[in-house]
Amino acid sequence: MKIKQNPEDFRVEEVYTNIPDGKKYCIFILEKKKWTTLKAIEAIAKKMKVSVRRFNIAGQKDRQAITKQYVSCADIGKQDIAYLRLKDIKLTFVKYSDKPIMLGGLDMNKFKITIRDIKEPLQPIRHVPNYYDDQRFGGYRPNLHLVGKEVLKNNYEQAVKLLLLYPFPTETENYTDARVYMEENWGDWVTFELPKGMVNEKKLVGYLEKNPNDFKGALKALPRQLFSMIPQAYQSYLFNKSLSAYLKNNYEGEDREYALGKLFFCDLPLEIDWPIIGYKTKGNEFDGLLKEEGITKEIFNHEIPQLASEGLTRKAMIKVSIQMGKFKDNKQEVEFSLPPGSYATMVLKGMENVNSHKHNY
Fold this sequence. Notes:
Elements: E1 10-15, E2 25-33, H1 37-48, E3 55-57, E4 66-74, H2 78-83, E5 89-97, E6 108-116, E7 127-129, H3 144-152, H4 156-164, H5 173-184, H6 199-210, H7 215-220, H8 224-250, E8 254-258, E9 261-265, E10 273-276, H9 287-293, E11 312-315, E12 317-319, E13 323-324, E14 331-338, H10 344-351
Parallel strand pairs: 1-4
Antiparallel strand pairs: 1-6, 2-4, 2-5, 3-4, 6-14, 7-12, 8-9, 10-11, 13-14
Helix pairs in contact: 3-4, 3-8
């Protein structure tokens, strides 16, 4: 099973209603391909010569896809949107509002996906576990949960190392060489010359050039959305691991692979709210997992208030209505909608035929 062979194979569009009128924020639709959301916003901010902190989004969108999402920016005008030109980016003005776009505030995401290299038709399903997928953990470098764990434990230097060093097999040669050089010359910040695409790595190194050994400050110099996502990635990892174990112990189904191992899938109408562990999460059912991880709930009561989390819940299962296209020439098209924060790639994993588990997401 292969998806995202071409950006056109994976289309996602946000549905965001009830945007109030006003004047403070310019609301527009960002249509992009071959850009991550954060890098697209950074490029737009640079072109407009405004701070990236003025921008708000409802959620991250894939790089290898054609995506449409709502964005707000304080104190810019319709003409700023109209005149901006960036490759593979299109901006469409919507309205002015007194409120910014809020994280998770959209109604739903609509997907249209072409799946290739399948030997048999996809299995129709009605329910899928509401797991977090690879994108939550860093995409091609799926270690953001490990970064989050070290940050929550106040091991800031190790967190920075996990972001800068240790190349993954999928990385290009120049990225690999840069990470190896940084490891061999750790602390000699002024000698680091990083490839053009290493935007966040450059932010870390640039801060450390001026503030050697202030690793906590370096992390805080990252884009606001990314900095907040770091501990959330670790909470997401714990959510996946605990929910998968619960489902496997209580229901029939099968394992599916993802970047961090295996997750258990079943197609059941379970109405369960599953905890995202924080320092106020009640009960002792997670004590075994926390012991295995070598932590306690108290690490989520972090010294940086922005990173602290009391804990909350997330639907364990989601209901999905899938429009199945015809299976032909080893490919099939599907269309469906999901609530904010749910992953289309997890729906595809749930639809994968039992006899063909190899996938390329």
